[in-house]
Amino acid sequence: MKKLRVTLAQLNPTLGDFRGNLEKAREALEIAEQRESDLLLFPELFLSGYPPEDLMLKLSFLKENQATLEKLVSYSEGKQVAMVVGFIDCREDAHNSAAVIQNGKVLGIYHKISLPNYGVFDEHRYFKPGQEMLVLKMGEIKIGVTICEDIWNPVEPLASLTLGCGVHLVANISASPYYVGKPLLREKYLSMKAYDYHVAIAYCNMVGGQDELLFDGTSLVSNPNGKVVLKGGTFEEEITTIDIDLDENLRINLLDPRRRYMSTQNLPFKFLELPPPKPKKERYPEKPGSHMEREEEIFKALVTGVRDYVKKNGFKKVVVGLSGGMDSSLVATIATEALGSENVKGVLMPSPYTSRESLEDAYQLAQNLNIEALTISINKVFESYLKALEEVFRQTNPDITEENLQARIRGNYLMALSNKFGWLVLTTGNKSEMATGYATLYGDMAGGLAVIKDVYKTDVYRIGRWYNQKKGAPIIPQRVFEKAPSAELRPNQTDQEKLPPYEVLDEILRYYIEENLDPGEIADKGFAMETILQTIDMLRKNEYKRKQAPVGIKISTRAFGKDWRMPITNRFREP
Fold first, then answer.
1. Residue 433, marked binder
2. Where does deamido-NAD(+) bind (predicted)?
3. What residues have CB less than 8 Å from 125, skipping those under 6 apart?
């Protein structure tokens, strides 16, 4: 009988916090040892945190990473579980690596072969690719060690590990960034890989936020017929254990003999001999888990992003400008869920054009969330601005300049509160506004974290409705959903005066930004060419604003940040 007890340490490291990450590793090792695990998996680059970016260019950072590995090795003395932990091997060059550690010794080191260099990834900038596979041999059981992108590569090294080396289990340690739908996509992909190659897969993914990136966890184990037998929580730290029956591999091969006729490149590899698994008295059963609905998944992602950005950067409290509109209502709600109501401050900053309804809705939201609400009028400051500029502006008519003055006064207020009390300012602009420039530079764009920067306006409403349903009460006041969106910077202003309906705008933006379609292809989807070109023109003209926007939480396949690198100076026009 080929049985293996595997523990997945789905944990949330902090980049550069070697001491804290080491302590998490020690705790997981103790738990795995208590559970009599044969194999313990940590996420990719767990000891350093991921992605380290240009910290990779600092020798002091690399040395601390190496020293932390040595401390973990020392701590493992007397422990029988073999662990695979992500770290940076920098003895001769920099490699994204996995160390195999057992009983006070590094038994082997694997260097990641497939280095991603697309989207948010820049691994070719920092790492040298590995050239050799690593196979652990525990008695009759063979385990192939891989790191993240290795398993996403269409062919290698998985083909050589399974067809060439005959491994029973592929262990993959990962830091796979999140976007909406990624957990389900990943589950389908990995279960199909397991089925295609008739091999069990144990996949341990990082969880938590790092600047704009999120890692959802959702670690899993699939058996050789593609059935997911264990799934970790989404956006939750978890240490899970399962007993895997690896005799299933042979059974699947006999019933479905396709592997007999498949060929491979046979990449070079080395075997690493480890003690065989010991018999176990108790059994850790299957835990296949379930899926979240879309709105819950996005909300939980944003809560995780806010919590980790705030706490990992040493803040305790945040401040949000409350307008009585949908965006600020959702941001305040997310912040309260992430940090607790005692750590969220709301600020109402009425102007001459702020409606009574908006003030009432903002106050009601603050009351429903149990957050402190401050009111600081901008009327007198706005009047003083107009007075100071009166002579210079005397031969002009009021326009967007006067509207933006109000937004910038509010931005100044929020930043003053941040400076005085150490509160982090959360901005409230959504992806639709960031794309079209419907936001004021140094005004409502001023702050430290753009919470819904990657969330389209239509999704803001959907998530808000889902939240109220979940709570069974109108935490976000019903009138917020019903009134027309408006910046309220002049009488009777609405967003739709300058923008297409959000239902149309958001779909055009999604096709153009995330699916990379050209105008003609978008028109084939049923949209008017005039509206498409108007939208793309707004997107192009406002690149300079986005370059100055605060970092935002990425939840889509292509967000304004690491994976959107458009030039500001650009005369190319869509055909």
1. yes
2. 404, 433, 545
3. 117
303 and 189, same domain (yes or no): no
Phi, psi of 374 (to 5 degrees): -100, 145
**Residue 326 marked in a binding site:** yes
Q: Is residue 289 part of a domain?
A: no
Q: Are residues 316 and 455 in the same domain?
A: yes
Residue 177 lies in a domain: yes
Burial pattern 214-246, b for ≥16 Cβ within 10 A else e, equals bbbbbbbbbbbbbebbbbbbbbeebbbbbbbeb
For 198-209, how does the pLDDT look when each residue is reduced to its tens digit (9 = 90+)?
Answer: 899 999 999 999
Are 154 and 189 contacting, i.e. CB atoms less than 8 angstroms apart?
no
The closest alpha carbon to 332, from 506, 489, 463, 433, belongs to 463
Same domain, 412 and 491: yes
Q: Which two tokens stand for residue 188?
A: 């389908």
Q: How many domains does the chain divide into? A: 3
Q: Is 498 annotated for ligand binding?
A: no
- Condensed to tens digits (0 to 9), the pLDDT of residues 338-370 reads 999 999 999 999 988 888 998 999 999 999 999
Residues 460 and 439 reside in one and the same domain: yes
Both 387 and 243 in a single domain?
no
Are residues 236 and 335 both part of a single domain?
Answer: no
Domain annotation covers residue 285: no
Torsion sign (Cα): 472, 477, 482, 484: negative
> Is there a single domain that holds both residue 249 and residue 347?
no
Q: Is 47 annotated as a binding residue?
A: no
DSSP reduced 3-state for 503: helix
User: Which domain does 13 fall in, by range?
Assistant: 3-274
Burial class for 367, CB neighbours closer than 10 Å (0-12, 13-18, 19+): exposed
384 annotated as a binding-site residue = no
DSSP class of residue 217 equals B
Those residues with Cβ within 8 angstroms of residue 48's Cβ, 6 or more apart along the chain or in another chain? 13, 15, 16, 18, 21, 55, 61, 65, 68, 87, 88
Instruction: Give 10-residue mean pLDDT values along the chain (575 residues).
Output: 92 97 97 96 97 95 96 96 97 95 96 93 94 93 96 90 90 96 95 92 97 96 92 95 83 66 72 87 84 94 97 96 95 98 96 89 96 96 94 91 93 97 97 94 94 97 97 95 73 71 95 94 94 94 94 95 89 80
The answer to whether 404 is a known ligand-binding residue is yes
Query: Is 322 among the annotated ligand-binding positions?
Result: yes
Catalytic sites, residue numbers:
44, 112, 148
For residue 485, tell me if it sits in a domain.
yes
pTM score > 0.85 for this model?
yes
Q: pLDDT digit string (tens) for 77-136?
A: 999 999 999 999 998 899 999 999 999 999 999 999 999 998 899 999 999 999 999 999
